[in-house]
Amino acid sequence: MLNITTVKNHLNQKSNPYCFRSSVDQTLSTEQLIKEIVKYNSTLTEADVRACLSVLDNKVREYVNKGYRVELPFAYLNLSAKGTCSKPTDSFVNGVNNNKIGVNVALKNDAVTDMTDDVEYKQLSAGYIMDPKITGVFSILQDGTKSNDLNFTAGDIIEICGKNLAIDYDDEKQGVFFESETDTIRANRYSRSGTNVIDTVIPSTIPQGTYHLTIRTKPGVERYAEHKIINALSVV
């Protein structure tokens, strides 16, 4: 389904402070499409449809590559060249500097109408704009400066930078979590805690190893949200 959310509008010239963004949470795979076609026309077998799609795939790629404008039932595909040069006699070389050949996909008007009329969508809570996001992880040295060295020992301070990081520490489901393949350890000491920066102490009981770093908050009334950095740090 199409999910529509509200996010802050960061454009310099803006008519409103917020704007809509969307995502989809379902994918119709090729195998699922084959089954749908077979159900639509029972005289075709899955083998027939699979073979037809395979040939279609090969021929579309072949003729687009040759420079044709290829018509499909719902769209046209063709190559296009982009880039700049210093003088009119310069040669175009794909992949050199900013010279690039791409593929244009132009949907037919009736296809656009069919795809956009009476759309099923879900508008998510505005709380989703407050989901946490980690943008940087640092160690804090003895002199208080930051370091990109993410090898820690128990008792070291780790600084997490980002947005929407505010945590209710009385809620055990929220917090900073160090996750290994076998264990999850919640941080229990913080030297600084805010919306954009959290400084927390590597727990004294944490075993040596590599850990994912997760921050979990509760931006809505019922919903928890988290952001995870895979293999973010090591405890030595």
What's the N-to-C terminus distance? 45 Å
Question: How many helical stretches?
Answer: 3
Gyration radius over CA: 26 Å
Largest sheet: 5 strands, antiparallel
- Portion of residues in beta strands equals 35-45%
What is the approximate shape?
A: extended
The helix content is 10-25%
Number of strands: 16
Strand order of the largest sheet: 8-7-10-14-13
Model regions low in confidence, pLDDT < 50 over at least 5 residues: none
Topology as a string of helices (H) and strands (E): EEHHEEEHEEEEEEEEEEE
- Look at the helices and sheets and give the structural class: alpha+beta
How confident is the prediction overall: mean pLDDT?
91
What features would you describe in this structure?
With 236 residues, this protein is of the alpha+beta class. Helix content is 17%, strand content 39%. The protein is built from 3 helices and 16 strands. The chain has helices spanning 30-40, 46-65, 109-116; strands at residues 2-8, 18-24, 70-71, 75-82, 100-107, 121-123, 133-140, 146-147, 151-152, 157-163, 175-179, 184-186, 190-193, 197-201, 209-217, 225-235. β11 and β12 (184-186) form a beta hairpin. The chain is extended, with a radius of gyration of 26 Å. The two termini are 45 Å apart.
